[in-house]
Design brief:
This protein is of the alpha+beta class. About 25% of the residues lie in helices and about 30% in strands.
């Protein structure tokens, strides 16, 4: 099988990124970009992000998760702590997050360290989830090999019956991580592949160093 993709091209010309107009703190710029994508970008899930980890087999792996909160401190998402990504983070908490907002021709790449958030914060978010999502957190041993789809359906039914007309508590194996950034790169598509790339790097004094990178 073969397919030549060499003629796939797009001209990027929707915006630009200049050192003279950006804030000193990258979280301010992220907030601005996220607002613009959310309001005007047309992306269905602007909070969808790729997280890259180094697995227990020493191979990198990417997958999509949903950003649920961002603060001055970092980026928060939720998952099963016993999943493949959870085990990878336990072994090596250095991860990379990336957003690609196609309609506004933008990328954000974040390198940082993932840490579990306090249990009370995970409890609070879990309580806000629909009951179906809560039960799913109990029913799925995420990333484990299972014998069939029927096995999963039976597990779901078991927990639906178990928690029928009852409060559904958060499983201890499920909760949130915060990724605290050490560098954040903002990429804005430009004509002739001369894209704008601005990188913020956290210094020892907790101030951010700003550099322009060649496209």
């Amino acid at each position: 099988m073969e397919k030549d993709l060499s003629n796939y091209r797009r001209v990027y010309k929707k915006s630009k990124l200049s050192e003279t107009t950006i804030p000193e703190n990258p979280m301010e710029l992220f907030q601005k970009w996220f607002y613009e994508v959310d309001e005007f970008g047309g992306d269905i899930e602007p909070n969808a992000m790729t997280i890259s980890t180094i697995g227990t087999d020493n191979y990198p792996k990417n997958r999509i998760v949903l950003l649920k909160k961002y603060t001055w401190e970092g980026f928060i998402f939720y998952t099963n702590y016993n999943s493949e990504k959870g085990k990878a983070i336990e072994k090596n908490p250095q991860v990379c997050l990336s957003f690609f907002w196609y309609n506004l021709e933008r990328q954000v790449i974040i390198k940082g360290k993932a840490e579990k958030i306090p249990e009370n914060l995970s409890d609070g978010y879990f309580e806000s989830r629909p009951d179906g999502s809560k039960i799913g957190a109990w029913a799925s041993n995420q990333s484990e090999i299972v014998p069939s789809r029927q096995f999963l359906d039976d597990r779901l039914q078991f927990f639906e019956d178990k928690f029928k007309n009852k409060e559904i508590p958060r499983p201890k194996h499920w909760g949130g991580y915060i990724v605290k950034p050490i560098s954040i790169e903002f990429w804005q598509g430009r004509p002739n592949r001369m894209h704008d790339r601005i990188q913020y790097t956290l210094q020892e004094n907790f101030e951010w160093k700003i550099d322009r990178l060649a496209p």
